[in-house]
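Internal QA ticket QA-208
Title: Verify multi-chain structure generation after dependency bump
Assignee: T.L.

Test input:
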Amino acid sequence: MAAVTMRLPVARKAVVPSAPRGGEKHLVAPGDTITTDTGYMRGHGTYVEEEKLIASVAGAVERVNKLVCVKALKTRYNGEVGDIVVGRITEVQQKRWKVETNSRLDSVLLLSSMNLPGGELRRRSAEDELAMRDYLQEGDLISAEVQSVFSDGAVSLHTRSLKYGKLGQGVLVQVSPSLVKRQKTHFHDLPCGASVILGNNGFIWIYPTPEQKDEEAGGFTTNLEPVPLSDREVISRLRNCIVALVTQQLMLFDTSILYCYEASLPHQIKDILKPEVMEEIVLETRQRLLDLEG
Amino acid sequence: MASVVLSEAEKLYIVHGVQEDLRVDGRGCEDYRCAEVETDVVSNTSGSARVKLGHTDVLVGVKAEMGTPKLEKPDEGYLEFFVDCSANATPEFEGRGGEELGTEIANTLYRVFSSESSVDLKLLCINPREHCWVLYVDVLLLECGGNLLDAISIAVKAALFNTRIPKVRVLEDEEGSKEIELSDDPYDCIRLNVDDVPCIVTLSKIGYRHVVDATLQEEACSLASLLISVTSKGALTSMKKVGKGSLDPESIFEMMETGKRVGKSLHIALQKILEEEESLGTSRQKVGFLG
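Actual output:
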């Protein structure tokens, strides 16, 4: 039975901020004066004009001793060493791959930073260079860690651990990088039956939890068996919950995603994307998160 | 057309999901995404509509101008379509990149509206062989999120429903020169009957099944699609196959049946929303683009 729903557009309601907690953020828009005190050093996102410190991007002001900078809310991903990212291969070049990670420049994955199956400390030979496309092709998704950042801001990645590597079957959701909370670990096995990788660059990868944990593949042989329907339902529901959280501008971390999943259980999976259901679910999630804090 | 690159495993996941009637966002194979329709968004047109279908955003404006009828149809007006793929949608449309897609969509629209029963063109005639109304339908693509033609056809129908053409009379002088008189009342206008205007339903073949309202990711997994235009009574007015893959004649029949079924539901939903909007009248709060 076909289901077609149409509706009239509704103006977006301003989200009423919940009870103010300590440490309110000072939000500025481009052109707003941050301070007229000349004793501060200006950091990223600010400039000085007529002895006033003015913001050049829209975001929250951060003060570290004498340094004032503005951290933009909507921006491309800026790499930091140690971040986990999920990226898509765009080019295969000599001895390296170019990876798209939603940053200003394509990231780089050197052949020497990649785990080759069958041994880690092997010197990369010319045959390895010719066989690069057998490992990673254009369009493949990988999970990797940031090794270093070049002077122009481009990021160099490495997959020198068994938990990184080529990703298999699953669903990718692209969100703004500022909505992914920095945590100790970004690989989560959620109790609802699926696993999630929260890339710092805003790429969220949802996939069925693999049964064996000690695969030595490191991710090169992808499992091409069909995923069972029950796992698919969990993955679709998680995907819709993440989209709902992002639309309502809530930070993404394992607890918020889990609470949102539990709040969405009474509804059908495809109904989660309806505006009124989205609001209701996210409100409940926000309430539970506040209760957890306070 | 804007397209995304997917890995082989992602494509396999999508194909297997469609087999089991559970797509990535939880929809079934015959479900549409939630659509937002608003008419009368552009003030200097005779009629306009904006349709948002997921991430696909389309704006249609209809301008009515006086012109001379075509030689082979002297007592009818006509419609002219123009499609502009704005660079806002994807960087591929920068400069002249969107021209090819725009002409292809415009040709499809001409074909869909070529049937005589879709719009009553005799209504658009003022003086046979001399004056008639020409409706210039301009389509602007603001965002490409998959399933462009369905969204465009919904928007065109809504815009035609919203079009108000002023009533004119042509007076003849003693010397034989003609004068066109516009009625004094600005609300005195003719409306078009859009009951028989068809809507396009795109059916994309993915694996062994077909889906309606494909997203960009699903379009990347489908090799062949069938575009059919259906009226509200379920009659097929035109059909076109797109894509580099092949379609089995049996699957074409199945897709046609699905398309007719889905098309009827589409028309019912659209008619309901247009009447609801009309009934709100002047008290309706216009959301527009800054909502």
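Spot checks passed. Residues 8-280 of chain B form a domain with the Ribosomal Protein S5; domain 2 fold (CATH 3.30.230.70).
Status: verified.
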